Amino acid sequence: xxxxxxxxxxxxxxxxxxxxxxxxxxxxxxxxxxxxxxxxxxxxxxxxxxxxxxxxxxxxxxxxxxxxxxxxxxxxxxxxxxxxxxxxxxxxxxxxxxxxxxxxxxxxxxxxxxxxxxxxxxxxxxxxxxxxxxxxxxxxxxxxxxxxxxxxxxxxxxxxxxxxxxxxxxxxxxxxxxxxxxxxxxxxxxxxxxxxxxxxxxxxxxxxxxxxxxxxxxxxxxxxxxxxxxxxxxxxxxxxxxxxxxxxxxxxxxxxxxxxxxxxxxxxxxxxxxxxxxxxxxxxxxxxxxxxxxxxxxxxxxxxxxxxxxxxxxxxxxxxxxxxxxxxxxxxxxxxxxxxxxxxxxxxxxxxxxxxxxxxxxxxxxxxxxxxxxxxxxxxxxxxxxxxxxxxxxxxxxxxxxxxxxxxxxxxxxxxxxxxxxxxxxxxxxxxxxxxxxxxxxxxxxxxxxxxxxxxxxxxxxxxxxxxxxxxxxxxxxxxxxxxxxxxxxxxxxxxxxxxxxxxxxxxxxxxxxxxxxxxxxxxxxxxxxxxxxxxxxxxxxxxxx
Length: 546
Prior knowledge:
Elements: H1 3-13, E1 24-31, E2 35-42, E3 46-54, E4 60-65, E5 71-77, E6 83-95, E7 98-107, E8 113-119, E9 122-130, E10 141-149, E11 154-163, E12 168-174, E13 177-185, E14 191-197, E15 200-205, H2 209-255, H3 265-276, H4 290-302, H5 314-332, E16 340-349, E17 354-357, H6 359-362, E18 367-369, E19 375-382, E20 387-391, E21 401-402, E22 411-416, H7 420-423, E23 427-435, E24 445-448, E25 460-462, E26 468-475, H8 478-485, E27 493-497, H9 498-507, E28 514-515, H10 526-533, E29 534-541
Parallel strand pairs: 21-28
Antiparallel strand pairs: 1-2, 2-3, 3-4, 4-5, 5-6, 6-7, 7-8, 8-9, 9-10, 10-11, 11-12, 12-13, 13-14, 14-15, 16-17, 16-29, 17-20, 18-19, 18-29, 19-20, 22-23, 22-25, 23-24, 24-27, 25-26, 26-27
């Protein structure tokens, strides 16, 4: 758990006291002086679900536990950036005559990853390895899928080896490489056979009917096992969704506990005014919940106050009243001048006509245009989640949305048009997912390290396969955090999770395509996909309204 999160919990939960005994839901429970645990546990400090940080190593596990407290379904992140995610067995099992204790994927900080049946941190049984560009065969090897053995960390049975050229080799692997006949299948469908004997290759030969049948059997074996892994991964994702739901509810309930006990006329008045100004404080009920507190913070940021608290006060009420009075006075004036150019943001196509961006990019714009000065129309704008859906000119280039939410530690790319008035070009930067929550433990956001600048807002955040995992929303307020913590934060930026985006698209009957990022890497570069699908959004309006 990072220092900022610890500071956050102290600020909001300092009035809580917890007994030394573990049962129940706890915040920052120190167990045997070795780990810091946040979540739910039972007798004898046996954890049920939550986040565990090992003090000595810096490793972190997030998710559910078996009845004995061992890992069950979640993500284990090492302090070097490697992480494992998936389903842990409560005892060692066996498949294809090979033992395993984890079904999931192991992501290495340098970029490679394994997926399938693991024993410890290595594949042992059916699985796939995806290689980083500069590893193995001079960067030519793309992936290997089939039977693996932990002892030699290589294919050791029926499988396939794919290259970035599009060539795939099918066959049976032993300690010395391919054994017997191996089949080369080119990207255009051409096939050749080589025969291996004592390490020597003979060929190429044309395939006969027997070869075609054997090749089909190997392909069927791989596809069948991949489908089984997909089914298991679906179960894991359901577990992960359950964890996110209960953890979010737990944190939110505790944050708002002190405030929700007493009805307040002041809070209700503030809620009414926040609603009128479009800040979405939630129900107008006089109770200070998480949404109301977040709306107050948003208003305080808008006012550029030195201290942002999210707390109701008479001063906030008066400031809201003055803001509404000024807005009404402005709207009653007849504006005879034409709208002028106010600024730019970024967006991206999710289908042939619909463009996604931030609400704050299009807020108060009289009209919008794209890179080529073609008109864009706002279909829907979600103030609370800061997402807007636009309709634009038809385009054949659009982005797929990842089947999976952001994964801790995975490599990400941010694309868009930062500082367009100065740079006037599309740009893409890279980094890693650094946290699965945003500022103030916002579970709809996540944090990443990809450099972001003004003008990037609304741009796509993609994984290494070119699929969207989020929407860039903001960089951290460095001045505020420095004032709170005494140190200047580095490279902390935020994105809106693709789960929120999918909900918006589904609610508005907007079509989109989901891509399984685990198995199929894009044939085009992430930069190429992002550039063709990204949109420079120009805002025109009146200076006093933006």
